[in-house]
Design a protein that fits this description.
By secondary structure, the chain is an alpha+beta fold. About 35% of the residues lie in helices and about 20% in strands. A five-stranded antiparallel sheet has the order 9-8-7-10-11, with helices on both faces. Strands 2-1-3 form a three-stranded parallel sheet, with helices on both faces.
Length: about 300
């Protein structure tokens, strides 16, 4: 099996976005090291460039790490669609799922229609976040709003469309889900908030030397009661089915005031850099990284 690990290069990113957010070389190398002989190729994301690389390498399967073609995170689904058009098997979710999950309001509508619990609208305190961004972009501490005036202040700071939802007071979990065609495997990590921080800000996710990062540790060995673990896994699996996921995803879930899981976000292209969430998730489930990589590649081929 010839494997091409294809990733986009960080270039021309929007102001305020950390370059390391889109530097996918370490993630690509981590995949290649788990599958000796794999070819790693970084591309800007131009259509002809991608067609040329695929035509030259002639892979049996592509590990898709193309998150921001031409520096545009909103074109993530375009790259998957191009691979689909070329008839090349690839890992991860398809273009339709990537497109749905790009828009948080659309994701919420799809989840609700499938009976998946989500945060309510029209309730204070609430959280205001961009509707069409990922990676916690533009999310700061002031996004938690106690009244309408605070909502308007955040709206003024965020130039694009926003989603306004109930701010959930309970515990927060990152639920990794993966499988051949169904969400067969689940691993649950818990984000712990320290020193008064109540949400994962942009700096908490990307500024590894900052206070917010240190105040939001993610643990895969936290105490989770069996009933809660089952409820979290059930919500994540329902989200997988609702958005038509495949391969692997991460579902962000928080508990409401009654302790019920609500899905806040579905990430169909989660971080796989060594030493991050998906590595920890696989390990918590008893998988080696090599087993995870080989399974994803086999499943991608099997879907053709």
């Amino acid at each position: 099996m010839k494997v091409l690990v294809l990733h986009t290069l960080p270039a021309g990113m929007a102001p305020g976005r950390a370059p390391e957010e889109f530097d996918l070389n370490a993630a690509a190398v981590g995949v290649a090291e788990a599958f000796p002989g794999a070819v790693v190729a970084g591309v800007r994301g131009e259509v002809n460039e991608v067609i040329q690389v695929v035509g030259t390498e002639r892979p049996d399967v592509v590990w898709n790490l193309c998150e921001a073609p031409l520096g545009r995170p909103d074109r993530e689904a375009h790259m998957a669609a191009l691979l689909e058009w070329l008839g090349v098997p690839f890992t991860g979710c398809g273009s339709e799922t990537l497109a749905i999950c790009r828009w948080k309001d659309l994701t919420n509508a799809v989840l609700k229609s499938a009976g998946v619990g989500t945060p309510r609208a029209g309730v204070f305190p609430c959280i205001v976040k961009p509707a069409d961004e990922d990676g916690s972009s533009l999310i700061e501490r002031d996004c938690i709003c106690e009244d309408a005036a605070a909502v308007e202040r955040v709206r003024a700071r965020i130039s694009g469309p926003v989603v306004v939802q109930e701010f959930l007071p309970g515990r927060e979990f990152a639920v990794a889900v993966w499988g051949r065609r169904q969400p067969d495997y689940v691993s649950i990590g818990e984000t712990v908030f320290l020193n008064g921080l109540q949400l994962i800000t942009y700096s908490a996710k990307w500024d590894t030397g900052g206070a917010d990062y240190k105040d939001t540790p993610l643990y895969y060995n936290s105490e989770i009661a069996p009933e809660l673990r089952a409820a979290l896994a059930g919500a994540a699996r329902a989200a997988w089915r609702a958005v038509g996921a495949r391969g692997y995803i991460r579902v962000d879930i928080r508990l409401d005031s009654n302790g019920q899981p609500c899905v806040m976000d579905v990430n169909p292209n989660p971080e796989i850099t060594p030493g991050t969430g998906m590595h920890w998730a696989a390990e918590e489930a008893g998988w080696s990284w090599e087993r995870f990589v080989h399974a994803q590649l086999e499943w991608a081929l099997d879907r053709q």
